[in-house]
Amino acid sequence: MIAFLKLTPIISLVAMLLRGMDILIAAPLATVLAALLAFLLDHKSLQEITDAAINNAKELMLILFLLMVAYAMGEIFMATGVGASIISLSMNLGVSGKTVAVVALLLTAVLSTATGTSWGTFAACVPVFVWLSHITGGDPVLTVAAIAGGSCFGDNIGLISDTTVLSSGIQNVEVVDRVRHQGVWSLLCLILASALFYVAASNMGLPSESSDATKAIATIPPEIWEVLRTKRASAVALLQQVQSGVPLYMIIPLVLVVALAVYGVSTMACLFAGLFSALVLGLLAGTVQSVDLFLNLVQKGFADAGSWSVAMSMWTGAFGGIMKLMNAFEPISRLILATARNVRTLLFNNGLLCLLCNAALGDCTGQIVTVGPVIREMVEENVEGSDSDLYKLRLRNATLSDAFGVLGSQLIPWHGYMIFYTGLAMAVYPLHKFTPMEIISKNYLCLIAVFSMMILTITGWDRFIPLFGLPSEPQVHLKKDIVSAKQI
């Protein structure tokens, strides 16, 4: 009974969100409930609860700074001609309303794999593609969902991704082996998702003809222009620049960000390089009138991040800290071991634990660090087999932890990723009030990845995918006496 009560904060949070409550209210309420349960059930002092909440929120400080710089870069890319140059180039290549989501998915998948960052990829691409979708007659939600999925694709498989490196290290496997293990599966998910995005666009009746950007912008009604001027003046600048044209070299800031990331430069440095190059080239092209006006755009980006995403990230961190303080998932860990009938069900249960912990913490890195050692010990202490076969099981554990952390985050409405993506999408495209649930419903890549991973693991169908198959019984088998895992 106590174990169930400790899970009620996450159950309550889900219920509040499903009823339509704003996460700005739901997250603090769930945090208060978690704190109350920690006090009543575990007899934690108010100081211990406060410290747990604050210390966990402190770990998000770098992410919060990245959020602010990412918002600023989104504002700058829209206003200085970077976005306009990419839209114009894409229009020349014949992108239509029916294909814009597919193009966005594939481009962001490549970009995130090259850079190893989902946050930076989304921040750089959403201002461009959401307005390209508008111009070509695409569906904004479908396009944002495609960008979100593509941005997380590379964060899950990229050699330089922090989550790829971290999850592999915790399971004591080589990063290159991890990428090879899941590589074909990841590509199949991407191909199938691309097909589904195209089918969805076709079923919506979206136009297949390449649009004339100037004519499309001219059809925007006056009241929409007024809304844009009030809520997002930089979007007006972007559309006007598409109409008037900008030099092709304004694409350089985005190229520079990608190149630096591939070279191994930190995400923060890449973002600042994008900002600085946009300033220099914008002054040269005439799209930036003065340094003061440029700094005003940066300030607006910082303010937009602080007004919603940063606040929600702080509450998410506090909530996760209190849940960890209560050891809320210890009974579930024991249940996973008790219900395992063979090695595949054990790994399947490990995946469920990763998803559940990710949902509770709202932080994929926190989930990887918290649950990673637990699922590794579950395999090492409870499975017998050759060293090479056990290594393959650790590869799958690493893939589960990372995939259900990064890709699984896209299916959790209150997750930090979804808060960031939804907030930034609304900031750059105020014509639609995006919600996490509608983005989730159309994020075909993440839906395919998460559910296929579970199905392939439990059924053994992963043997049909090159390099992805697991050793079967009796090559590997559970020990007769199941050893309890350590507490989370």
Automatic annotation (TrEMBL):
Membrane protein topology class: Multi-pass membrane protein
Listed transmembrane segments: 23-41, 62-87, 99-132, 184-201, 246-263, 270-288, 308-326, 347-369, 414-432, 444-461
Keywords: Antiport, Cell membrane, Membrane, Transmembrane, Transmembrane helix, Transport
Superkingdom of source: Bacteria
Keyword match Signal: no
Chain ranges of the Na+/H+ antiporter NhaC-like C-terminal domain: 13-200
UniProt cross-references to InterPro entries, sorted A to Z: Na/H_Antiport_NhaC-like_C (IPR018461), NhaC_Na-H+_Antiporter (IPR052180)
Main subcellular location: membrane
Tagged with keyword Transport: yes
Subcellular localization: Cell membrane
Secretion signal, residue range per the UniProt entry: none
Homology family: Belongs to the NhaC Na(+)/H(+) (TC 2.A.35) antiporter family.
Name the UniProt record assigns to this protein: Na+/H+ antiporter family protein
